[in-house]
Amino acid sequence: MRKCRGEARNDRFIIGCNGATVFIYDKDGTELAKFKDFPYAYRAVFKPGTNILAVKSTAGYLGFYDLDSLTLIKKIVVTRLGAQDEGFAFTPDGKYFYNIEKPRHSARTQLGIYEAESFTKVHTVFEGEENMVLEYIEFDPENSACYFTGFFHHGNMGNMIAEFDTETLTMSRIFTNVAVSDCGPLNAYKKWESYGLSQKKRENDFRLKNRKEELRPVTIKEVFEKYQSMT
């Protein structure tokens, strides 16, 4: 089984993403298939409780695969801009797929929400936002609360962590000027986590290699609750 920069796994499959190819293995490491549907595919995540796989390319593509039939369900071109390296996640109930996108400008983000059957986009949130930039997303598996990390370009608000209301599609609470000592290790771990905690990613990403003592499991919820307790 190849060592890849990005990995994902469930109880039946192991996934390796090396940019040009998405490798599909069974749990014993036997190769079952490989897909070459778009370039720069390094990150993947399973839809909860299924063998549906979402793959995100830094070149602006999303791909959704049914591993039971080893077929591509849908390929989406989000944008032709590169550097699409922000976070993405399925909701814990598997009904929706959330993707942080930069469709028009490399320094402006929006949130794309797709229903997770046909993978049709049903909402675009923060479209046209010029100040707030989203980086990573996380759902609490216990209560489905949604959290983001990010930062603000202007207004002396710096780094931020926020809780997102999935009903109203708005930020319900935002903490600004989050200390670098909190957001640095958090974003580093969330980045590595989005690559499936791949050892090859850690060894080849200088930002991760230089954080040996800080690269520990941490959630956005933990940091959010820390700042909440300080108010």
Radius of gyration: 17 Å
Number of helices: 4
Portion of residues within helices: 10-25%
How far apart are the first and last residues' alpha carbons, in Å? 49 Å
Computed structural class: alpha+beta
CATH class designation: Mainly Beta
Ordered list of secondary-structure elements with their pairings:
Blueprint: E1 6-9, E2 13-17, E3 22-26, E4 31-35, E5 41-46, E6 52-57, E7 61-66, E8 71-77, E9 88-90, E10 96-101, E11 110-115, E12 121-125, E13 132-139, E14 146-152, E15 159-165, E16 170-175, H1 180-194, H2 199-204, H3 206-209, H4 220-229
Antiparallel strand pairs: 1-2, 2-3, 3-4, 5-6, 6-7, 7-8, 9-10, 10-11, 11-12, 13-14, 14-15, 15-16
Compact summary:
This protein has 231 residues and is of the alpha+beta class. The chain is built from four helices and 16 strands. The N and C termini lie far apart (49 Å).
Give me some keywords for this one.
globular; 4-stranded antiparallel β-sheet; 40% strand; single chain; 231 residues; alpha+beta; 4 helices; Methylamine Dehydrogenase, Chain H
Describe it for me?
The chain has 231 residues and is of the alpha+beta class. It has one domain (6-229): Methylamine Dehydrogenase, Chain H. The protein is 15% helix and 40% strand. The chain is built from 4 helices and 16 strands. The strands form 4 sheets. The chain has a 4-stranded antiparallel β-sheet with strand order 1-2-3-4, with no helix packed on it. The protein has a 4-stranded antiparallel β-sheet with strand order 5-6-7-8, with no helix packed on it. A hairpin with a 6-residue loop joins strand 13 and strand 14. The longest helix has 15 residues, at 180-194. The mean pLDDT is 94.
